[in-house]
Write a structure and sequence with these properties.
heterodimer, A: 8 helices
């Protein structure tokens, strides 16, 4: 099944072409890389605050201190195709617009409660839209080392959590990290509250 | 060969040529040089120095800007490899870029090609199992393929020989017909959950046993190499020499003889046939960097380029005597392509053991050797499968798929989750004549060499077996008291297991096989094919140890025949 067929089939499954998100229509164009990916300063700040809301500073540093915003930027530029990053940035702008409409403030200036309410909305939306994205993600590639193009919040959370728990701060402060264990202990003692290992 | 400028060809002469530097080529180089031959080992990939060449081996997770994931550019350059996990940000430099030699798929085939000295011995999974007579007699008994010209007794001493050199950790099981005893180092330990599941499976199923994988990772210092440090980063290359690779093991042995020359960047175009003598006189190489053409001559040639590439070289070795490829009087060359089918099994949760965790990252898992269609057991398919698996506590990754974010999610992710266990079957694929590769009549790679067309598929026998592979796993996990046990089948396409084999099979009859019982081309006696190409059936066990044993055995025979003057 080629790309066009996959999308036609998706249209049938979801009851007609009107239901195909714009992002999938864009993907019917030939494969393109993402050489001109740029974020505005406002978008960068927004990404940083969304990431910090997903993994906040607690008794250990949060996403911003761990360098997660830069990681997300790098991933969007290198590991997602342009139609996807265009969609992602549109959703970013929508997060900002929704925050302003609902709370008359920018996401960056919003309280934790307000940010949480907005992101919960996007989490719900991601769940509803997941099946539409699944088809495109599969036709692009099912590798576990190729990031998959999923709804905005799913990818935002995945990149934040992955970026955080594989960062030096995440590995060594939020988790435990042993670069060279030298031995394997199959019944190592554990008590509630002990940290998880960073790498499995 | 019409496109090659023969005036430019330079001639070089050795006692033996080894094509390929992976598991089989490394063994051929070691054995032939140790027996006194002057050898050149030709490798199409880049040089890779042991330890100092492993630039990624000591990097921490945060040193990877994509944290292991591949980029859009890499995916575009590797339309086949992007389908599955083996190529990652950490080891991408070790793999051959698909775009340099694209291939056609009548049916989907995932071909993983290395691009380094050492071949796939650097990235391999290291599981190392012996065949048994149940495997060697299978073709004869159920009529698929052709009978193997050898039996377990022929190869058993060579398994001993290979295991002692390689250093394989694992366990010998008593009275298990598909799991003959080996020369093993102490096995890696099972964790508490695996040890309990093992006991319960044994209690519920008298003819099934769960053991630790036999793996070519050292559990103690061995032959001057260091023990495993339990980092589980093997595919980047091991700075402790703790797993078997060409670089850690066979290459140092061969170099110590001072009789080995290694030539990277060397694409073997063809084996050159001398019609007067009725033997091969050498090979024609294209330097992948300069496009220079060089002829190397030798008394014997060992073809160890991997099952698919060895098939390609023989098919591309055309002469008036062999218009359809060297040694292809039978018409079987390029046919009978096999791979294991896998990615189906079960997983489940294990309650309790929350006061237990692990220290260290074991580069190995559990193994249940084949029990189906053994003894009185009879299924609606032939042959069988084994299981590879393992138990662990989940880590931070589990929160990605779950709902929620913020401080609560973060706190949850910093502690391990509960225990779960999963396993996947590795099933035997039958040798079907129609499963084949052939040279493209018109498409060329960037060096002007013909590319391949793959026409290989799994069929009804494999499909039926997969039902058992899923259901048996569930049945065993449920008997072990696990909860929420679910079967899965993620689909399996030929090539994916990277256990491809069969393009130049061994057999008793030159009319139906390419190689004889010594891995020698029936009608070109000084050419030996000892990698996966030689396999007449696939068994269900990981094949590399068998290639090692067959290579050492063939090298011993080749040198003895050479001394007797029988290979002129």
């Amino acid at each position: 099944m080629n790309r066009r067929d996959a999308i036609k089939k998706a249209a049938l499954m979801f009851g007609g072409s009107l239901l195909i998100p714009d992002v999938l229509k864009a993907w019917t164009h030939p494969m393109i890389e993402n050489p001109n990916f740029r974020l505005t300063a406002a978008q960068e700040a927004l990404i940083a605050e969304i990431a910090e809301t997903i993994v906040p500073t607690t008794d250990t540093p949060g996403a911003k201190a761990a360098g997660v915003p830069n990681f997300i930027k790098k991933m969007l530029a290198d590991c997602y195709r342009q139609p996807y990053s265009d969609y992602f940035m549109k959703e970013l702008d929508a997060v900002e617009a929704d925050t302003r409409a609902k709370f008359s403030t920018s996401f960056v200036d919003a309280t934790t409660e307000q940010r949480t309410e907005i992101l919960k909305m996007y989490e719900k939306k991601a769940k509803a839209e997941a099946p539409k994205f699944k088809i495109e993600a599969q036709s692009w590639g099912d590798s576990s080392t190729l990031p998959s193009e999923r709804p905005f919040f799913t990818v935002m959370k995945d990149l934040t959590v992955t970026g955080y728990f594989t960062s030096e701060i995440g590995c060594t402060q939020a988790l435990r990290y042993e670069a060279v264990p030298m031995k394997f202990i199959p019944d190592y003692p554990y008590k509630k509250g002990d940290k998880a290992w960073a790498t499995g | 060969m019409a496109n090659l400028n023969t005036d430019a060809i330079k001639k070089k002469t050795y006692d033996a040529i080894v094509i390929g530097s992976g598991v089989s080529g490394g063994w051929a180089a070691k054995e032939l040089t140790e027996k006194g031959l002057k050898v050149i080992m030709l490798e199409r990939g880049k040089p890779l120095e042991h330890i100092t060449g492993y630039a990624e081996a000591n990097k921490d997770p945060w040193e990877y800007e994509h944290r292991g994931r591949i980029t859009v550019q890499q995916a575009l350059d590797n339309p086949f490899q992007k389908r599955d996990y083996p190529m990652s940000e950490q080891n991408a430099k070790y793999w051959f870029e698909d775009k340099k030699a694209l291939y056609e798929e009548v049916k989907r085939f995932d071909w993983f090609r290395p691009d380094i000295v050492g071949g796939k011995s650097i990235m391999w999974g290291r599981q190392s199992y012996r065949w048994t007579d149940i495997d060697f007699e299978a073709n004869m008994k159920d009529g698929h393929g052709v009978d193997w010209p050898i039996r377990y007794a022929d190869i058993a001493p060579w398994y001993d020989y290979a295991e002692k050199f390689v250093g394989i950790s694992g366990e010998n099981l008593d009275n298990y017909p598909t799991y003959p005893p080996g020369q093993l180092l102490p096995m890696m330990p099972m964790n508490v959950v695996e040890a309990d599941v093992r006991k319960r499976i044994e209690a519920a199923f008298p003819n099934r046993r769960m053991t630790m994988g036999r793996v070519a990772n050292l559990t103690q210092n061995h032959n001057g190499r260091g023990a495993c440090n339990y980092r589980n980063m093997c595919s980047r290359g091991c700075p402790f020499s703790a797993y078997f690779s060409t670089q850690s093991s066979t290459l140092p042995a061969a170099m110590a003889t001072k009789r080995l020359t290694v030539r990277p960047h060397s694409i073997v175009n063809s084996i050159l046939y001398d019609a007067k003598k009725g033997t091969a006189k050498g090979v024609l190489v294209i330097d992948s960097e300069t496009n220079e053409q060089i002829e190397y001559n030798a008394k014997i040639v060992f073809v160890c380029a991997s099952a698919i590439s060895s098939g390609w070289i023989l098919m591309n070795s055309i002469s008036p005597q062999f218009p359809n490829g060297l040694g292809n009087a039978s018409g079987e060359l390029g046919h009978n392509v096999m791979d294991h089918h896998f990615r189906t099994g079960a997983s489940g949760q294990v309650e309790g053991y929350l006061d237990k965790y692990l220290f260290g990252r074991r580069p190995n898992g559990t193994y249940i050797p084949r029990y189906r269609n053994v003894g009185d057991d009879k299924r609606d398919y032939v042959r069988g499968f084994g299981y590879q698996g393992g138990a662990s506590r989940s880590g931070w990754g589990r929160v990605v798929a779950e709902e929620g974010f913020g401080a609560e999610m973060k706190a949850m992710a910093t502690e391990p989750g509960g225990w779960s266990m999963s396993m996947t079957g590795f099933g035997e694929c039958l040798p079907y004549h129609e499963n084949h590769i052939r040279l493209s009549p018109d498409k060329k790679d960037i060096w002007g060499q013909p590319t391949l067309i793959f026409d290989v598929e799994f069929k009804e026998n494999e499909k039926k077996m997969r039902i058992d592979m899923a259901n048996d796993a569930k049945e065993m996990f449920e008997a072990a008291g696990m909860k929420n046990v679910r079967t899965y089948d993620n689909g399996s396409w030929p090539g994916m297991a990277i256990h491809e084999m069969g393009t130049a099979r061994m057999g008793k009859d030159p009319k139906t096989s390419v190689l004889n019982k010594w891995n020698q081309i029936h009608d070109c006696k000084n050419v030996f094919v000892t990698d996966g190409a030689c396999m007449a059936s696939a068994s269900c066990v990981n094949p590399s140890l068998t290639y090692m044993a067959l290579t050492a055995r063939a090298a011993d025979y080749a040198v003895s025949e050479l001394k007797k003057g029988n290979l002129k």
